[in-house]
Amino acid sequence: MSVRAEQLQRAAWTRASAPQTIGLVGIALGFLALWLALPPFGVRTAPAPVAVGILAAAAGIWAISRGKVRVGGGAIVIGLVGIAGALLAMRASSSNLEGVFVWSALLAATLRFATPLTFAAIGGMFSERSGVVNIGLEGMMLMGAFFGAYGADQTGSWVGGIFIGMLSGALLALVHAIFTISLRADQIVTGTAINFLALGVTGYLYNQHYGNNGTPNNLPAIPDVNIKFLSHIPPHGLGNFLYNSIGQLNLMVWLSLLLLPVSYVVMFKTPVGLRIRSVGEHPRAADTLGISVYRTRYGAVILSGALAALGGVFLSIGFLNSFTENLTAGRGFIALAALIFGGWRPFGAFAAALLFGFSSALALRLPDLSASSSAAWPVLFQTLPYVLTLIAVAGVIGRSIPPAAIGRPYIKQ
Amino acid sequence: MVDEAPVLELRGITKRFPGVVANDHVDFDLRRGEVHALLGENGAGKSTLVNVLYGLYHPDEGSILVKGEPIRLHSPKDAIKHGIGMVHQHFMLIPVMTVAENIVLATEPTQGGVLLDYRAANKRVAELSSSFNFAIDPGARVESISVGQQQRVEILKALYRHADILILDEPTAVLTPQEARELFAILKTLTSQGMSVIFITHKLNEVLELADRITVLRRGNRIDTVDRQGATEQGLARMMVGRDVLLRVDKGAPSVAEPLLSIDDLHVIDERGLEAVRGVSFEVRSGEIVGLAGVDGNGQSELIDAISGLQRVSSGTVKLGGRDVTGVNPSSILDLGLGHIPEDRQLRGLVLEFSLAENLALHDFDKPPDSRWGWLFPRQLVRRARDLLKRYDVRGGGPQTRAAALSGGNQQKVVLAREIGRGPSVLIAAQPTRGLDVGAIEFVHRQLVEARDNGKAVLLVSLELDEILSLSDRVLVVYEGRIVAEHGPDVGEEQLGIEMTGGGREVAA
Questions:
Q1: Confidence (pTM)
Q2: CA-to-CA distance for A73 and A123, rounded, in angstroms?
Q3: What ipTM, to 2 d.p.?
């Protein structure tokens, strides 16, 4: 009977109705209310943002009255937060605002921060879609970060760094696979152990090889892709914006963007993807059709380790050009969150990664706002991106449905 | 039609599990175009035998021959290769995927060897399904289609892989009588086209309706193989159980006394917000069994839940022994003398991970003598459990055994032991014999009649008309949340069938 109810709910969801649309428009208006106070609009008086924000809230209330509680609630909260943010932004000086909200630079930074998350989240997707929880993404990323740097150092080439980094992540994933698939250990416990193992291994090797001096300054780095012609696109403002935002991104950023459609096609448009998903949903059904559950899961977990490691490689030799202990600092967990928020889908996970990336980019720049005004409110302002992310992702999108057999070891009869 | 070598032959199959011999030198053969029923009680070794045949288990001894050739089956893949398809009792379907995806999985058509060719998959599935008049939308998600249709998807899975031997493991257990009749028609079409079918069941009437030959298994041994011509329910039942079985319930005239359960103008809203029970009134008196007949989903579940306090009553009253218990919490209602044998024993009747002793104490654990001053006495639980298990003839485990380890019939005996053992004045039995074999059914029926003879008021809710007719002293027919008819025990099945589906309405008092 509950299955039936779920179906009804799902049917209602797909038939996107007017209240749903109005609610989404309300959410958009809420963001607009905040944006009005920021460059390039830079509205300095209250009425306009407040009016737009109230409109957003009104749309939300209407949506709730028509039964779309989640979207409507999102619109109301975002509308109010938008008004508050706009009013706060007006208290900062125009020049400070313009210094912080350089949209082209923010976009570039957002993509840069999102890239390692994207790699790891896509990796996690393969593992989790096959039914194996991969909380060890963090550790696999860290392995990739260290061995990427180490490999680049030893081979003298960033290509070598990429391959050695991916290999290290794949090997660590193999350990996870052996424990969780063959030995049927608890996937959360094993994943946690994997994270500590990676922390220990990379910490030890780092101290052993680079000791006090740190990684060498001349570490071969993954090159940026310089797209000169973008700056010549008329009009001048647009050309500049394009060049400054996407004209000088790292090769790995573009690779991560390429990975999105590729992983989508593999997961949802090929036999391999169908089999991975079948193993994650109903392994016994897959088994009765002759699909090897163990082999499929091994493959998926190892691939997830290699991809997560690629995110780590980008961090060490594509972004920071060095390695320090615990370089990933929890990004693997954020990637896992992005994966879950994104409903175990590549573009969903990427959207969540972008939100997190934007939050990080903004959080880095926001302290500049406080240069001339009192120190109290910018601290609060700093949480705003996270609040927005939470509301947008958790509040509006809601609960995502995991693969049915996730976390459960398969025992062949 | 039956003039060549058998398409399939099993010789001396033996399969041992720790502590049991599930199959002991079983011989079996299947001829082209026949339906060969495999009949036996739960635990007789039917499922083990077909799992061996499908490559899921590896036999310890014996050989398998397909069209005269000995073969070895290492996995289901090998079985599929030899044209063997299986419809499992618990469907092997992925609910979130489409019908077509489920069917082509593992043998997908591709575009250029890389991309899954969804158009070709949908087209082939549509063709296959329409060639058997299945009317299944290849693009529909499996979770959104009915159980009967899901079973057809399973059959299509086998046909798509060019199976000419089809195994069906208890296919009717999940079907309504109507769906079961449709399945039989499908199977007759398939066999007329040369398909050979192995049909596992423990229902005697199905065997006699459908099968060409019948092989009976008991405790891992093959008892006999007989033709349908000349087979009788009584004879088959004796072979299955190993003794004479009472298929008809033996009961005397009821000695009816005062009403113990009175329902007055009851309305209940279900979880979808629809009115599932619409003004139901009836009484069940001491010393009688009242049968509630109806097609599944006509408000029976909501009615039972409302009586036992599990679901909110929107209006009307429920009286237990003259006392108004409307809106009282379930635990108090049980204390006031209600026994409830729920529809789904595994989900609601038992806590599968608990021991039998704990399961038997689920209601009474918080009162003396089970506990005192907040302190539980496990030894008391075990003592009572030992006594009850013996009285209700529960086999396959002691007080410390996990409930999940018992067979379905024995699980139901545990539920009966708890619910009747508490000495209630009113007993609700919802589908008390669903999925049970003849031996267990006989036991359950005897217990219900005994409860009635002891002066309890028994409300029997069942989808099986046979059961309703053989047990009830009065029959109520429920349709769309209303009682549409009331009959004595001698009403015809035909008449009930018409009323259950909305024909010939007349509202009883």
A1: 0.79
A2: 33
A3: 0.82
